[in-house]
Amino acid sequence: MKKGAWFGGVALLLVVPYFLQTTSFAFVIRLFGIAGLYMLLALGLNLVIGFVGLLDLGFMAFYAIGAYTAAILAIHHVPFVLCVLAAILASTAIRVIIGFPALRLRGDYLAIVTLGFGEVVRLILSNWDGLTNGPKGLPRVGETIPPASLFGFTFSTNLHYYYLILVCVLGAIWICERLNHSRVGRAWVAIREDEIAAELMGVEVTKQKVVAFALSAVFAGLAGAIFAHWEGFVTPESFTFWESVLLVCAVVLGGMGSITGVILGALCIVMAPEILRSALGSSFANARYLLFGLSLILMAIYRPQGIWPSRRRTLELRPLEPEDAPQETLYDAEQK
Amino acid sequence: MGFLEALSISKVFGGVAALDHVDLSIKEGEILGLIGPNGAGKTTFFNVLTGLYKPDKGEILFCDQRIDGLAPHEISSLGIARTFQNIRLFTHMTAMENVMVGRHCRTQSEFFRTIFITPSFRAQEQAIQKSARELLHDVGLLDRGNALAKNLPYGEQRRLEIARALALEPKLLLLDEPTAGMNPSESEDLMRLIERIQKRGISILLIEHQMRVVMNLCHRVIVLDYGAKIADATPAEVQKNPAVIEAYLGTSAHA
Amino acid sequence: MILQQLVNGLTLGSLYALIALGYTMVYGVLLMINFAHSEIFMAGAFVSLMSYKKLSTFLPPTEAFVAGILISFLFCAALAVVIERVAYRPLRRAARLAPLISAIGVSIFLQNAVFLWISDQSIAYPQAFEVKHFQFLGAQMNTLQLLILGVSLTLMLVLQFFVNKTRLGTAIRATAQDATTASLMGIPVNGIIAITFFIGGALGGVAGALNGMYYGSIKYNMGFVPGIKAFTAAVLGGIGNIPGAMCGGLILGVLESMVAGFIPNGSDWKDVVAFSVLLLILLFRPEGLFGRRVPDKV
Fold first, then answer.
1. Which chain A residues have a beta carbon less than 8 Å from that of C265?
2. Which chains touch A (3 or more CB pairs under 8 A)?
3. In a domain, C293, yes or no
4. With the C-alpha atoms ordered C270, C242, C158, C202, is the resulting torsion angle positive or negative?
5. Which of the listed residues B118, B148, B169 is the one where a domain comes to its end?
6. Do A124 and C272 touch (CB under 8 A)?
7. CATH code at B45?
8. pLDDT band at B255 (very low <50, low <70, confident <90, very high)
9. Which residue has the higher pLDDT, C169 or C1?
10. Is the pLDDT of residue B214 over 70?
11. Residue A55 has pLDDT above 90, yes or no
């Protein structure tokens, strides 16, 4: 996307919500904040599904680990920044531990392992009452999760959290873009295209998969920590398999590997129910899953590249300088 | 001692001996041909050599270092690169990007330098692009650099695969039927290309079915049949070897 | 007490086995995991219930129930065939992830179709006949368990016979081994695949009906957890291996019942057991108990 459009868009995102605060559209701020969290998650998942090409059906587990870690620490008066770091650390460490054995499996098996692990995490969160208060969630009666605070500033309104999330999303987009146009990004896409050929061309496939896996968990842990502080409340029911599926939808429908596409996908996932609700009445809002299911099938068959497909990069191909051109090329193009 | 020494390599798949105590050695600077009827074990040997399979018996030494049992990417970075019988390019990446991936093991990434686009990151990216451009120029594909690999015609895809393999700066290049599907004129061009690669100091192990290519290009030829080595001599000698003639069709020297 | 849990476990396990057969057969011929299979199981429960309700207005309850099961057998078989034709066949040659994504789409669609158009709540599944309880060697058992065991084992034996002793069964095994060669031998591969889905769907549907009867209630999302567990069973036995899936189902059912019976708070943690078994097998022995590690040809 052109730089001008980018800056314009970001400027709008910065300025408009500020003015919406006191209007009847103030709920949009919260909606965009939630969309932002989903974008963070979708960007993380895009590294795994979009770039490397692995199907991950249990990503929500790491959002949950991040959220619960932050919640538990915050209840014990740990400062926000440390909660975030701990959440990221917990999420990433567990992701890597599961990742090493799991990433040696072929595609469909990996999908089931991630699904199974996601369920195990949810079940543990639901049943380990001592740590997590089970289905009732945290905080327990009489405790609170204090709001986030950074350098003395306390995040207390939706707008505050919206700006925090916006900064994180922009940072995530930047990181993903940089990686895309680098040695690591090319290695990931090569793995997606042909894992064996990539390995034979010198790419350390398992290591690169683990790196993608780990980085996605960093995004998830961060999003989880912010969620815990914003919402002030975490239960296992926020982190079900269907949420993982929705994220997969966001990435696939948006366009696997395409950063813009994935952002749009996340936006659709969050906005669609609201649009459906206001347009069709609340009973039809439940049809969103039905439509998503149908769109997954149709997209897989008719437009596997997604709404906003990723495009490979056009590089500059200026002719070689005389000193760089070899005396004799391997192939005599002139003869043709 | 030797450049590449494969000693008594055996590989069994579900009861079938794909390779049966095969000894193979390559001298530095040599073009060695590996021929044999279909199913003789040639590609299996490549796969064992490059680390995709572990040999059930035997060992492989490359520049006096044992490489059997190493991971494929480790073997690649030690200096062995290959192409494939059925071209395995990264189809949805451009020609440039395919070659740039080949530079992976000759370069390194550092996360923060990548994120913050430091000068050293920029310099390395430019170096990678420059190498890729040079290699594409070398195989006559520079003007096709931004084309997606899947959109290239067959002959160009073969050359691209070779360029990608050369990006690894190999000491030994394994070519698996590079002239498959080519007419005589294209095969000639490819033969010249292979000769020039060898003149640059890269040793070559070549699986080929076209006898003309083998006879004209190879210094030495090894023949496999049912996984076992049945001949190891110059092309002229191999052509007259009765065991080879029996294993093959016999009069296929006019390919 | 052990015998008690064993009986419970075998009953549960035979349901898992019936569902697992659907997964394993489809994986055998198409090398894909049919994520939507759990919804076919769910559909079986709903279809049998709805048929039973309609039919019991003019048929005696037992006959209505049996007819209901037969209808779900056929309906789910047909449903599976339709799903294959519409959502999977166009993607036979597509990239790896595409059929998986399509399967997830079907699964979501079916679940939410039931959610929207039938009910988002649990529905009671009435007892169609009187269930007699009795004691056997100290264990409590009832005729419903015997029925489930009987039906499942019969179906599994019939399937084993069919796959190993009939021409059609041989055709299926051939297609599973090498579809290209099978088609060169004159085997209509598309038809064989359809038949495989037919059989898997039918068994899953019957399992759904029996499951509904056993637990007394059904819900739109009842397929998810049994589906994962049945897949675990299929993998445990060696994915693609039909007797393996049967054994895997029984083993998993017994394991789960033992955990529920003997570990404190076991019933909360029994699902974790199933998933943990799944993870451990996939991570450390993906070929399962009876499969063989076959290296991929490069």
1. 127
2. B, C
3. no
4. positive
5. B169
6. yes
7. 3.40.50.300
8. very low
9. C169
10. yes
11. no
